[in-house]
Amino acid sequence: MGQDVEMMAMSAGGQARAAWHERAAHLATLVLLGLVLVIGTGEMLHGQLLKLGESAFGDRSQQVQYFMLRADPVRPACDPQADVEAETTRRLAAAPPAATDDAVDALFAAPRADREALRRSLAGMLAQCRAAHDFQQRVQHHITPALRAFRGVEIGFFALFRFGTDNRALILLALLAVTLVPATLGHHHICLRPPRSRRDFRMQSLTMGLASALLLYSSASYWRISLAAGVPLEDERLHLLWIGLFALLTVVCFGQLLAPPPREARQDGGWLQSLQSMPMLAGMALVAGGYFVAHGHPSGAAIYMNKIMDIVGLSLALALHIWAGMLFKRSDMVDRFMNILRPWRLSPQALTWIILLAAGLPTAYAGVSSVFVMAAGAIIYREVRAVGGSGQYALAATAMSGSLGVVLRPSLLVVGIAALNKEVTTVQLFHWGAWVFALTSTLFFVASQFGRTQRVAVAAPSQALPAMLRELASTWPYVAVVAAVLLGYRVLLDTPFDEGSAPHILPIVMLAILWMEHRRRRARAPQPAAVPPDSPVRAATAETVSHIGAYIGLVAMSQIVSGMVERSEVMNHLAPDSFPSVWAAMAFLVVAKVLLGMVLEPLGAVVLVSSTLAPLAYRSGIDPVHFWMMVLVAFELGYLLPPVALNQLLARQVVGEAEIEAAEREVAHLGWWRRHERWLLPLAVMSVALLIVAFVPLAFPSLLSLSGAP
């Protein structure tokens, strides 16, 4: 297979023993991700703890409920043995003298004391005092050591949950800091080509350092302006954390320039070619941040970068999806699935089609298409190659593996669209997303047959079916583990598995599966004590650190680019106030969405479209659901097109440069289509799908009926 260089994997020098800063980053990331899980499930879990406390410690016969027991009762200050008659006499004696006969003075004099009324009032107060003492004694009687232990857990969890909920923005920023710095130290950024030569590494450090310095200047300017405004800052800690993060990144990057290059760096390489190793987030920051500085608004980059806090829930969910994806990558689930298919001895095209169909569901659970490519792209490439698929065809399948299922439930991108646009719901988008998935997967199968002499092949059912059933039976532990976790959430926490809970449940599912696989391996063949039992989790977390830093950093920089586009009003200049027809409006929007997908990260692009082009589409008579289904397909096409081609870029990096070069040599003597198949096949499929999704409903309005989606 050649050298398997995965994007943002741990460097060769760090594989033997992680440095102290890497171990610290792994631990900090695990703690923060665990806190995010607590935030996500905390409300449901705390509600169940309150129910458990009520059933275990409440006493209806004594009218004592658990909420009364959450703190030790305070003994009332009143005297339950007070003498009402004596107190009445004392108060009457201390009363002011009788009012004067003067009519004017009588207006301001105290009223005459009524002994009987005073006695009744004191008797009522005594009854309330005795009831308070009785309640205090009844509650105190229920304060047992078991209750103290339980409420300590419940109140402690509530405090943790409340802290996490009140500080979600700080947690996101802290997560970005503890992951982006290690990604920079290890040169694990998303870029057009991973650094190989010494100049590549230096160019990456230089551009990242300049971008960090620019963002440091912008963040400091934003902080100074906020202080000078005289209005209390909503949370000054956010400003200071941004400043601290970029100051640290600046020091790290320029320190790398002064230090010797990594040992694996080669001697060759030119400066112009090294620009391909510039981190994408650095390029975005330099272009957009430079725009704001040039227009006399240095704080603009920081202002728009802080808009990531407006989608803090989506960003934290994305981090959990990335973690779940890396855990999935370390499991045996893909191998189990492939073992079920292998007895049928399918042709590469048929097998790839089935793999992409099966990948649709985990792609939806991965949140966005690029996350799934990072998690499973290398596995898909390996399996397609193993059944005889060419390198170019396997690369095409790898790049497209994340593009088909992004419209399926519970895609994080669809959830984000529904959260930002009240005109559509997730139910409508997922309903029509299933039809789009059927369309794109069918188009891929048809296009994959183009120019091939080998047709769909299937083994005899009499031979394949028994072997498949044997392999299928071996998957029951996985089904049992998944069912147990989902049932536990449903029964114990009253939380169904849906698009809202998926980011918080999936990591638990994958941790349970990895634990099950470890136990089964130990049962079959005990491993030496030197092998740590949680090594897959540690390896997945190590990848998660760099992935989160690079990808969420890209989301933040996309906000700055979106701000540059918004502030420059380029959309208003390009888009007319009105279109002569809905067809013209759709044609303009299709081109605009593809262009945005070519340069922006998905979540950032959705935020920009929601505020700029979506209202234009609605005014032009385009149904909101139809518009957003077109946007999703257009974005996926844009992620396959230069200059960035994000999904192609990630496929290249997870597969490795050696495989890319081998795939090009393999088809060098073949026709034009086969030589460029990794580009042409995905583009052909998604282009045709986009034209169908965008324009066929306009030609046949009866197909729209979008508001009738369940």
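(the above was protein one; protein two follows)
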Amino acid sequence: MPTPTKQDFLKEVISSLPTSAGVYQYFDANDKLIYVGKAKNLKKRVSSYFNRDKHESGKTALLVRSIVRIQHIVVNNEYEALLLENSMIKEHQPKYNIQLRDDKTYPWICIKNERFPRVFPTRNVIKDGSEYYGPYASVKKMKAILEIIGKTHKIRNCNFNLSAKNIEDGKFKICLEHHIGNCLGPCEGRQKEEDYNQSIVQIRHLVKGNVDSIIGDYKAEMTLAASDLKFEEAALLKQKIDLLENYQSKSVVVNPSINNVDVVSIIADDAFAYLNYMRVIKGAIIQSHSVEFKKKLNEQSEDLILSFIAEMRDVFKSDSREVLTSIEIGASWDHVSFHCPQRGDKKALIDFSLRNVRFYMLDRQRAQEKIDPERHSNRVMQTIQKDLHMVDLPRHIECFDNSNFHGSFPVAACVVFRNAKPSKKDYRHFNIKTVEGPDDFASMEEVIYRRYKRLIDENQSLPQLVIVDGGKGQLSSAMKSMDKLGIRGQITVIGIAKKLEEIFFPEDPIPLYIDKRSESLKVIQRLRNEAHRFGITHHRNKRSKAAFNSELLEIAGIGELTAKKLLRAFASVGKIQELSLEELSTTISKSQAQQILKHFSDKK
């Protein structure tokens, strides 16, 4: 009887898996946990890893080859599976699970678990029963809330143990904070614990974003104080109301009727995903947090959003029943609905969240580029490869542009990018030799042929991508030279038309339109503009040189060497015309100077 193989064993395990929701765990030959996943249907999800002959992602194929043991845990629903998956990933940090990249320790507002609780900022969350609100991605936002708390409530900032016995024994004395009106002196029993705790209740409402309830309490107190003729007390309450209303007006960004909503947006590429979470209470964004995920197994955006929102709801203690997302979500959770708004105030919240995540992504990329420049270049090249459906990574790109003036002084330019950056030492100018008149197509054919004939003859490497500035006509001309050289198919060749930024491929009548914000299009545009600048500069220099030389060479007795000598000394023919005999004689002979003066005098 043959010995059962690893595949036979795994198939047997999979066949016995339940069809309910749960979490599955993959272990390697060293019995180390290498992957944790969630599933609405455990049997169907785990089977999908082993039913394919070839996986789209190489990492997934590597994971499957490493699996020798499978475990599973059954839960009641998909949401519970997601929560369990998150907790297991945090605890075990499996090799193939996505990694949350967040190198900051964000601040929190702490309401200390003690008699007469203190309220203060902290970056250390201690599980001692204290309440923590946050985290705050913006320290400025947190300080603004603490400032409002300080102006509207008299909270102690000392760290004394204000037990009833210590206060009775008179262990503490009031300090300067009491004398300047920042504290009501609970250390000497001058403030009752009930009054102090009422302030703490209102502070909880404030940090949670429930500003309306505090304003309502103050208005009721103000009305009562005014009716009792306590006008000074009523005036102080009015000041607090004004402070809170001013704070609230700065926070409201959409319709205040949008209450207790979570907002999540995502921007993802092949390697990384960037997500933003916002907590919205009565139209005010009270918390916002952005993160970067490093993909491991080509995870889908929906799965990333679900994992992220589960973690954020736990961190921010959210109980909202509605989650707004930037993409459609097919999942369903008990008591939670997912919506992808297309218009209105809720769409405005999604747009605001996307703007935040885009800024966060750019900040992360800029910071990473300083630390690891190669990562930025590789990401750009991978984006170009994907957008242009290329086989090879475009490490070497060349772009061509023609210039002429009514057919005169025809020139062309070739600019070279290596690893998505200009390689100026490889730039080349071409003077058109075989084309008469303004024939842009024939000029492009000549330049492409000359360029790659030389590279082939010198055994130099060919570029992976060639860009032709122009539409179908210029591209067809370039391909004629590629055919003559026998290198069609070895190089990806595209044309870019200026008007609509259309990308043309050989023998494809339908152009490709790349997203205007794409890094691919920006690099292609930069190449095109650089080729145009480089070519125009050469063309102008050639025209100017020809104009200067032809004018001076018309003069009897003035040869090419003398003309160059004059231009080096005086820069232009126009300036030479204005010189006197004595000034010209400092550079050339007197007889030559007289000939020049006579020539320009006869022309007047």
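Reviewer note on protein two: The chain has a mean pLDDT of 81.
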